[in-house]
Amino acid sequence: MTARPAQRVEMVPVDRISVLNPRVRNPRVFKEIIDSISTVGLKRPITVTRRAEADGPFYDLVCGQGRLEAFRELGETEIPALVVNADMEDCLVASLVENCARRHHRSLDLLQDIGGMKQRGHTVADIARQTGLSGEFVGGVLRLLEKGEQRLLQAVEAGQMPISVAIEIADADEPGVQLALQHAYENNLLRGRKLLAAKRLVEQRKKRGKHVLSFRTDGAAVSSASLLNAYREETDRKRLLVRRAEIAKSRLTFVTNALRKLFADRAMMEILESEGLRDMPQELCEHLSGAGGHMS
């Protein structure tokens, strides 16, 4: 029997769903799933097959173990699910096909599908119900699509940036963009690596535009202007690295000479000895005087 997806999403009790072929999950990836669901809701319903029993219907999981476990971790009692009619073999095949397809499917294309549903006449509420996404998230995606913000959309789908921050950046001018990043930092929406990634994205968006350029597959040659711009950017980057290295070297030279003069001053050495500060790291001592691990 071939699996047939349901025409609408059903709310299924999480305690009635069994995982037929459980997999060990990456803790970091699982935490990202939990954070994403708690922030914007479920982006895509899980897939199950109904199993009738005496004390009510039960369900076997076809696809979506991570999302199901995240809902359980968050204390949710029901989860949006597509219910299909399939036997055990069909469930395993459907799960494999869906996982393989997802690996090769660009995340940006998935968000573009929301724009396609809007163009076909679906309301935000309809899209949210059919996809399992929150209405706020769907509305934000549509707004970014209207502005052509492909870079921001890609960051949102990758979990690098909340949809609210992406919208604030899309609506802001250049000073406002920096203010949006500051607000996101102050509100704990962007911290650490995510903040650094957001800053890099904003810089790329400023230099290269809102759209994400893909590699050409028609065999057309790259323009000389684009090659020249890429060369200049790489040259400027290397020059900056060289300047930073020279500054660091000059500072280290200054510190080294200053320490050598201090250690050559007998009065200074007596003060250090009286304070019990005669020892120093061996590598530093060897670098300064070529002697052992103690001041001489």
From TrEMBL:
GO cellular component: chromosome
Residues annotated as domain ParB-like N-terminal: 10-100
GO process annotations (BP): chromosome segregation
Domain of life: Bacteria
Protein name: Chromosome partitioning protein ParB
Species of the source: Neoasaia chiangmaiensis
Lineage: Bacteria, Pseudomonadati, Pseudomonadota, Alphaproteobacteria, Acetobacterales
